[in-house]
Amino acid sequence: MSEAFDVIVIGGGPAGYPAAIRAGQNGLKVACIDEWRNRDGSHAFGGTCLNAGCIPSKALLESSELLHRAREEFATHGIRLAGIEFDVAQMHKRKSGIVKASTQGILALFKGAKVTPFAGHGRLLPGRKVELTASDGARTVYEARHVVLASGSTPMELRSAPFDGGSIVDSWGALDFETVPRRLGVIGAGVIGLELGSVWRRLGAEVVMLEALEAFLPMADQQVAKEALRAFRKQGLDIRLGAKVTGASVVAGAVSVQYSDAAGAQSLEVDRLVVAIGRRPFTAELLADGTGVTLDERGFITVDAECRTGAENVWAVGDCVRGPMLAHKGKEEGLMVADLIAGRYAEVNYKVIPSVIYTAPEIAWVGQTEEQVKASGRACKVGVFPFLASGRARAMESTLGFAKIVAAQDDDELLGVHIVGPMAGELIAEAVLAMEYSASTEDLQRTIHAHPTLSEALHEAALAADKRAIDFPNR
Ligand code: FAD
Ligand code: NAD
Question: Which of 121, 418, 451, 459 is catalytic?
């Protein structure tokens, strides 16, 4: 038996590494074990989010959006560029640099918070012992007063279209295409499908998306979903709803996809196929027998509202537990657990977790949709303000979309805010803060918003909820 720690965190993604840092800030002796391997075999902290998710996808979204704007929009501003070219290799190089800076930054943060980093596989043994298997196979067992499991998630595979690492790939593969596919198929028109489909569409691929459900973005407010679907189709994303994939085969490097929809059996030929049908919790080789930690029927580690598992002083956070698979949700759970371990007050307000889809237009929301509020039976009022009526949006040449507020009829409480349009992911922060403090629409109405800013759209949507909007006719 070797060293003992106050806290050992297994998993160094956006749920695990902040838990380790906060535990260190709380004066505890902490280690963080992580096994992530990049394609070149190197180890890096940061998990899916920094290495193969949030960060590289946003880097490519930014590059491809700039290209799109240079081609489609600059002339409107009076900027003429002749012969615009792009270089996918340079886009990947920039992306890799951003990823590297972010992941290496974690090691510096660990140093500052006195967190001991271990590269290797962690396994929980009974009695809060943790076995570390290093890359050379050497095993060490550590004792811990508390263990935090933050093992994350992995892409779901479709039996009828299994990954082959080349032609049929997951989201990580789709972030690394060396050339632009002429024709790209995407199974799943969810968050990943839309973001990565947008990247390759803007770079010139014909993109066909096969979505099993008849509804588009069913988790979003349907007025927003409708506006977004119209915009995406206009951009050339061929989104086919109600499409059930029955098989896929690779012949001479091309992928033939069979699916059925309302019209019957269909087929599709593409150069590459991305399968983005959701992710599942990853707990392989994480738990030895007899730890007392249990999994639910979908494979998530069972936890209570404060992320306690069934085993004493063993906690679990992030994608491996229930709730939305979002980096910021995992981070807040990690911080909560590290503070609870230190005897401090902490909680996560699961009702106020923002969602953002980083397409153009961006989509962002927090709280309940209009459909959810109506289904709950609570009388509500709705205020909508289109970006078309925003001076700043017009100046930005970004007038698509709107901000929408759903509030309680009885006490005016904000119940949900939904934005489709420019910088929606940034604008939603105001709504999150407002809802965190149980604000009313009147609170937003009486808050001064700088002019001319996009944030005025939220102000006007709040006014519109009481038919008192100034810059757009009230309905
Ligand atoms: P992970 O990030 O998966 O990290 C878990 C870590 O634990 C990994 O490094 C893994 O190797 C390690 N590990 C697992 N088991 C062990 C073990 N036994 N021993 C040692 N180490 C282990 N979310 C957002 O909020 N915003 C976005 O914009 C966004 N974009 C995304 C884009 C893509 C393409 C993808 C795939 C995901 C995106 N997500 C986004 C989701 C986000 O990446 C996840 O919600 C987040 O990474 C979950 O964090 P986590 O720490 O729980 O797990
Ligand atoms: P998702 O759940 O967002 O979308 C999956 C889509 O695939 C759904 O629309 C689903 O109906 C569809 N689908 C499922 N099975 C199918 C089938 N057999 N055929 C056709 N369609 C099928 O999942 P995702 O896009 O894979 O993303 C995984 C997770 O990563 C999500 O939980 C998401 O929150 C997270 N993520 C977040 C962001 C962000 O916050 N911007 C970005 C990327 C990923």
Answer: 451
